[in-house]
Design brief:
Elements (H helix, E strand, L loop, with lengths): L1 E9 L2 E7 L4 E5 L6 H11 L16 E8 L6 H6 L7 E8 L5 E5 L2 E3 L1 H8 L3 E4 L1 H6 L3 H12 L2 H48 L5 H13 L1 H16 L5 H13 L6 H30 L4 H21 L4 H67 L6 E13 L2 E10 L7 E2 H4 L2 H15 L7 E5 L7 H14 L4 E5 L3 H4 L4 E10 L2 E8 L2 H13 L5 H11 L1
Parallel strand pairs: 3-13, 3-14, 8-12, 12-13
Antiparallel strand pairs: 1-2, 1-4, 4-5, 5-6, 6-7, 9-10, 10-11, 14-15
Helix pairs in contact: 5-12, 6-12, 7-11, 8-10, 9-10, 12-14, 14-15, 17-18
């Protein structure tokens, strides 16, 4: 339960610290005094989004801090899962900076808003007038029935499986579409792949072929140049070899006279050796040269094939063609495997369908068992709230569609008076009737929920007198199991509280401020008397207030 709330620089509140107790707490105050500000502050602590308009003084940060006693609510696992420090007295703090940025902390550990919102589901339920209208929504009606049916764990398992089922269905549909669209594509890819496979391409092949082509295409010119070079080198009297040997002989005679001449002799010797090697390679090259038109044609054809493939695939190298070939092989293989994948997914979907149907059947049966319990309890409570002839007709309609909570559709029909036909809640129930039905629902759910705190924000809309007294008594009964707050304008409900807080607004130095104060017994008598008679409190109003409190 919430044990204290501290607010600084929020809306009309400059600074406020208030402690709360267990049981039934009342919050009253005139319209516009700031009751919604208190709820807004609690909402921020529970993870609602904020902006700069929340700041009273735009130059200072807003800080809202709430302390919760959670030792009895088995929340250690949540804290461990989210890597948070657990404390029986857990403190949640929310800060809104002048820059507009927001920060949140649980026991001084920074957290994001989603984590706050997740934790809030275990701490407080704030019932607003909007929630009363949501009672006519089918999803809300299902939540009520499922809470009584104890369907929570089963629905979670169902939802997990449904997510996997939808993923499989999505994959299957994509594969079927791909299979349908890929007929011509598969044929074309296979054709392109076969072209490349037949070409038997190798990395670096193009460069080698281009060299071979130049040799074969110019064999006569090459042979003539090499042979001429060999003649010049080997001519008996004037060839290069002869002249180099003459130079070596001449230099050898003077090597003893100077290291310089010895160096020159060694250099010319090296030249002679190198030239001899070049000459031998020229001889080998000459012997290898053949005029081979057939080979030339083969090389030319292979090069042309490579050029054509490069042009077709808009690339410049054989390596790029080889990559395209590998990609095409993967595509063809992938499409070949589609049928196998489709068969595997179809089998998985069939199995999940069987499991989903089993979960749905269990959920459906639990709901069938819970509906009479809910209907009887609602009627029992509402009879005491001035609706003696109320009836409910809740019909489960089986469907073939997998919804988020099973395969049921629901007709939640209502009749308030004898002789009137059943109708949809939102069409036939008045505002006062909706308020009473919602209170009855909350009173029933309180028996099945371990939620620490419930805040009713003007659930008494449209009721008064004896009905208001009974509504107050029901909330009082609920407070034996959980902490209850009621924001109310009705003195009959206000008198049922164990403690009473008043929200008021005042002006100090041209500055409007809201305050929340715990009333003493005497102050409470005056407050309830004012709720009965207005600003001017009469003796009869005071006596009436005392009577209500007693």
């Amino acid at each position: 339960m919430i044990t204290s709330l501290s607010i600084k620089n929020y809306a009309l509140i400059e600074k406020l610290t208030i402690d709360f107790s267990k049981g039934f707490s009342i919050i009253t105050g005139e319209t516009g005094a700031g009751k919604s500000i208190i709820l807004g502050a609690i909402g921020l602590v529970l993870g609602k989004r904020a902006d700069l308009t929340s700041l009273k003084n735009k130059e200072e940060k807003c800080v809202i801090e709430a302390q919760f006693e959670i030792s009895k609510y088995n929340l250690k696992e949540f804290f461990e899962t989210n890597d948070l420090d657990y404390e029986d007295e857990t403190i949640i703090r929310r800060e809104i900076l002048p820059s507009g940025k927001s920060r949140a902390f649980i026991n001084d550990s920074p957290v994001n808003l989603q984590e706050l919102q997740d934790l809030s589901l275990f701490l407080i339920d704030i019932h607003s007038q909007q929630q009363t209208q949501e009672l006519s929504d089918e999803s809300v009606q299902f939540k009520i029935i499922d809470a009584i049916a104890n369907n929570g764990e089963t629905i979670l398992s169902y939802q997990k499986l449904l997510k996997e089922y939808k993923t499989d269905k999505s994959k299957l549909n994509a594969l079927l579409k791909k299979q349908s669209d890929s007929g011509k594509e598969q044929e074309y890819n296979t054709f392109l792949l076969n072209e490349l496979v037949v070409a038997k391409l190798k990395s670096g092949e193009q460069e080698e072929l281009e060299v071979d082509y130049e040799k074969l295409n110019n064999v006569e010119i090459i042979k003539e140049s090499i042979d001429k070079s060999l003649v010049i080198a080997n001519e008996e009297q004037f060839g290069v070899f002869h002249n180099l040997n003459e130079i070596k002989t001449s230099l050898q005679k003077i090597t003893a006279f100077s290291p310089e001449y010895q160096n020159l002799f060694e250099r010319i010797t090296s030249v002679a050796i190198e030239f001899d090697d070049v000459s031998r390679e020229l001889q080998n090259a000459s012997e290898k040269l053949l005029n081979d038109p057939v080979q030339l044609e083969l090389v030319s054809q292979k090069l042309q094939l490579i050029y054509n493939l490069q042009k077709k695939h808009q690339v410049n190298t054989v390596d790029e063609l080889l990559q395209i070939q590998a990609d095409l092989e993967n595509k063809v293989l992938e499409l070949d495997n589609i049928e196998e994948e489709i068969a595997i997914l179809a089998k998985s979907i069939e199995q999940k369908t069987t499991e989903l149907d089993a979960f749905s059947a269990a959920i459906h049966q639990n709901r069938l068992n819970a509906i009479p319990v809910l209907s009887n309890q609602l009627v029992s409570i509402l009879e005491t709230l001035g609706m003696p002839n109320v009836r409910f007709n809740m019909e489960l309609l089986p469907s073939e569609t997998y919804f988020q909570n099973g395969k049921d559709e629901l007709q939640f029909l209502f009749s308030a008076n004898k002789g009137t036909d059943f109708g949809l809640l939102k069409k036939v129930a008045s505002g006062g009737e909706m308020s009473r039905i919602m209170l009855a629902v909350k009173a029933i759910l309180a028996q099945y929920s371990k939620l620490p705190t419930l805040i009713f924000d003007e659930i008494d809309t449209g009721v008064s007198g004896e009905i208001a007294i009974r509504m107050g008594e029901i909330m009082k009964e609920m407070s034996a199991k959980m902490q209850i707050f009621a924001i109310t304008h009705l003195p009959q409900i206000a008198a049922k509280g164990d403690s009473h807080f008043k929200v008021s607004k005042s002006t100090v130095n041209d500055d409007t401020q809201s305050e929340l104060k715990l009333l003493s017994q005497e102050e409470r008598i005056v407050e309830i008397a004012q709720m009965l008679s207005g600003a001017v409190v009469s003796d009869s109003a005071l006596n009436h207030a005392k009577a209500l409190l007693n």
